[in-house]
Amino acid sequence: MQTVPETPATARAPGSDPPTDAALLAGTRTDFGTVFDRHAPAIYRYCARRVGTEAVDDAVSDTFTIAYERRGRFDPAHSSALPWLYGIATNVLRRYRATEARHRKLIRLHGEPAADGTAERAVARADADTAVRALAGELDRISRRQRDVLYLFAAGLTYADIATALDIPIGTVMSRLNRARTRLRAALRERGITTLEGPA
């Protein structure tokens, strides 16, 4: 059982650098709350992109519950816990396969909901929405492993971060991503779509 320090890592001297994720994960419950505050928005966006609003809260909650239970396993050699958290979230999302499939079907039929309710943003998304629908259908045809890499790459992770998240070699990340992108580009070309650019 991991020993929890009595003094939070966040209780630092004025002017000192913020504690690293590794220090926070080795600290108190309050410290873990800081890790949550730092990274929950990114994990929420990632889960929402995959399962929609139906299960995103549960998926994020499960991710951080597991992270807290396994915080002693975090490798302090890594400067950020975010790739590790993405890996936990990816494993958690496997419990929601049916929900994820329903979400892709909804996107395929109706397009992806706008991030806000403004008419201007909805209009700006119109062209990209066609591409999103096409991709949603094609995502059902690539392997789960390729989807995992693709979604993590879309979330902004580097090859190295994805390798850390999924505990696979960088070469495997690159090959899975290449196969997925090749398949998706071909599907878009068949529909006469040459860009995925949306609103700024």
TrEMBL record:
InterPro entries: RNA_pol_sigma-70-like, RNA_pol_sigma-70_dom, RNA_pol_sigma70_r2, RNA_pol_sigma70_r4_t2, RNA_pol_sigma_r2, RNA_pol_sigma_r3/r4-like, Tscrpt_reg_LuxR_C, WH-like_DNA-bd_sf. The keyword Lipid biosynthesis does not apply. One of its GO terms (biological process) is DNA-templated transcription initiation. The keyword Isomerase does not apply. Residues 1-20 are annotated as: Disordered. Keywords: Sigma factor, Transcription, Transcription regulation. PROSITE patterns: HTH_LUXR_1. Pfam families: Sigma70_r2, Sigma70_r4_2. CDD domains: Sigma70_r4. GO terms for molecular function: DNA binding; sigma factor activity. Residues 156-183 form the HTH luxR-type domain. It comes from the Bacteria. Belongs to the sigma-70 factor family. ECF subfamily. PANTHER family: RNA POLYMERASE ECF-TYPE SIGMA FACTO, RNA POLYMERASE SIGMA FACTOR RFAY-RELATED. This is RNA polymerase sigma-70 factor, ECF subfamily. The lineage of its organism: Bacteria, Bacillati, Actinomycetota, Actinomycetes, Pseudonocardiales.
